[in-house]
UniProtKB/TrEMBL annotation:
Keywords: Cytoplasm, Methyltransferase, Ribonucleoprotein, Ribosomal protein, S-adenosyl-L-methionine, Transferase. This is Ribosomal protein L11 methyltransferase. GO terms for molecular function: protein-lysine N-methyltransferase activity. It comes from the Bacteria. NCBIfam families: prmA.
Amino acid sequence: MREIVFLCAEQQAEHLSDVLLDLGVLSVSVEDANENTEQERPLYGEPGLEPDVLAWDRNRVVALLPEHMQPEQLVQDLRDQQLITLEDTDWSVREVPDNDWVRLTQSQFGPIEVGHKVLIVPSWHAEDDILHQAHDQNKVCIQLDPGLAFGTGSHPTTHLCLEWLAEHLQAGQTVLDYGCGSGILAIAAQKLGSARTDAVDVDEQAVLSTRSNATNNQVSVNALLPNQLSEGQYDVVVANILSNPLKMLAPMLAARVKSGGYLVLAGIFEWQIDEMRDAYSDYLSLQPWRDREGWVCLVAHKTN
């Protein structure tokens, strides 16, 4: 297979990507053309939200070509439509190695240890020695493959929530995982001894993913959409989502916590601590519990 690589300015990158897809390329990616130089610069944006700047000053727009597509004809089509000014020095073609992409992708996702109690294992590592050792050490083992729903266990916010559950969840307690994604926190709660775990997400794909992953892990998780959640309170409410939804959900999440229970929030940058505490100040007193790679987990104990 071949890729065609275009050099373009910031204001052209997004439009060129859309046009290339319309012309039939298989995929498009945008890279910083100044990567690994003194001119390289990052693009920042809160997870789930678009950054203010959508491309770099100088960009490489890389398009994967179908077997039948000739790069010279693709360039001519772009020129004929006068969609972008292209000099001969603005584009090039390179071969894509014929690799085993499935194996290469799987190699990026190995077993993940979380604290001393939890091990997350992709299915292709199910027979590895580390899994047998974890069972011998009475660790909670969660089999989970990367998929469409957020939550492979590799993100710092997921780590923080798993660590809190492993260290504080008591056998027989009830748990609400709000914004469940892949269901990893709900599954961990069940394996750590929760009497009942409800998992909620606004994304139907996440609900289906949670149900499937729970079945694969031989635990019972009640996964559903928000409007399907019955009235009731929980010993532990955990929400690993983004700061803006967490602020909007403050009254509801706080009300779902039993007296004596805990609210555990993640998906929060350290610099967002004060604004998050302000958003919940009428309901609960959030305190920083632990931080990881610039992210923080906030916890509140409901005493009344």
